[in-house]
Amino acid sequence: MIEGRHFRNADSRRRTFGEAIDRYTTDELPKKRGGGMHRVALRWWKSKLGTHKLANVTPAVIVDQLAVLAAEPFTRAKPGSKRSSFKEGQPVQQFKRSRATVNRYHAVGSHVFTVARKDWHWTRHNPFEAVRKAPPTRGRIRYLSTDERAKLLAETVKDPTLHLLVVMALSTAARAGELLSLVWRDVDISECRAIFRATKNDEPRAAWLMGETLDLLSRRAKAKPDPESRVFASPSGGLYQYGPPFKAAAKTAALVDFRFHDLRHTAATALAREGASEQQLKAIGGWKSNVVSRYVHIASMDVKALLKKMNKNAATKKGTTKKVKAKKDAAT
Fold first, then answer.
1. Which domains does the chain have, with CATH numbers?
2. What is the pTM of this model?
């Protein structure tokens, strides 16, 4: 009993949270597609609670650390670091984490305990389950106006690969990761269809290719590329780095606060305006949550404006009719 070998939960008093994070990083992290956020969150939890025994990671301790996470400033990159956009001597901008980010850190820490409980049997409970997540913030919705869309495409057309990526995002509502993972084997020009296999929810999804997207892909397919090669690849054959050229194009087009993912919002908003239902939007874009209700709401606001304009015009015509009738009566 003193040595902690008698009771079934002895591992939770012997193992540390840091040990659990290390094993999770080795065993579970490779299973995550694009686990960059998980890696960052795991490093943060290890720096804060890595030395704590699993039994000592209580809900109260977690609440305190989540408060620290929400309050502490952080930088997105450091001058001189790999892939940093900051130049030497330039001040490093600091940010505060959003409630959504804090909730993601909460989810990562919770999953470590879930795996430690169910798979490794290192503990008998998950203290994160007793900690409520922060209420979600209002979702970001930024989409292109007709004029902004024209300006952006006028810039992207200068880079054929970037242009195809942007046009395809606008026409299919696909995520950047889904587009970048697309290989020629999954593009069927004759059937006007592409299959996205590397999706966020790991469920393959078909996308219909139409208009300019189909034309651009058809031209590229004439070169008979390797079926296993990526549709969007860098000149060296590696993964296409769309970030810098897209930011440059958006800046030249004078787009304010616009990100690549907003192309997905633009496509969804356009579909909703054309009358697409929430179920249709989910089928097209692969959404699982009720986030699509935002786009339907935007479309309903557009309808409201149209109805207002129609009723205003109807009232004007009605008033004109009354005036004409009054003039006729006066003349009579």
1. 10-130 (no CATH), 146-293 (1.10.443.10)
2. 0.63
